[in-house]
UniProtKB/TrEMBL annotation:
Entry superkingdom: Bacteria
GO molecular function, one term: DNA binding
Gene3D superfamilies membership: lambda repressor-like DNA-binding domains
HTH cro/C1-type domain mapped to chain residues: 23-78
Pfam families cross-referenced by the UniProt entry: HTH_26
TM spans (from-to): none
InterPro entries membership: Cro/C1-type_HTH, Lambda_DNA-bd_dom_sf
CDD domains tied to this protein: HTH_XRE
Protein name from the UniProt record: Helix-turn-helix transcriptional regulator
Length: 87
């Protein structure tokens, strides 16, 4: 049991990097507003705004699919993986 707990602790200490939403940059680049995106996807403006401000803990894959469909883009256009910092 101690070895499992030790492995979990070690895993928690590993820097895996992070994922960042780049919806704000994409919309600005394509001159598309949050209001337009909300209207075209039937997603509440408040929800779009949280994604726009990169202020979410968990992503909703259905919402991302709606956004990509409406914006005619790929996930990589609105999501970015940031690798861990190396020393």
């Amino acid at each position: 049991m101690k070895s499992v707990l030790k492995e979990q602790k070690e895993l928690q200490e590993v820097d895996f990097g992070s994922v960042r939403l780049t919806l704000k940059e994409f919309l600005k680049q394509h001159r598309y507003t949050r209001y337009q995106l909300a209207r075209h996807t039937s997603i509440k403006y408040q929800t779009i705004d949280r994604y726009y401000k990169n202020n979410i803990d968990r992503v909703d894959l259905t919402l991302l699919a709606k956004m990509c469909f409406s914006l005619e883009c790929d996930l990589s256009d609105i999501l970015q993986y940031i690798p861990p910092k190396t020393n």
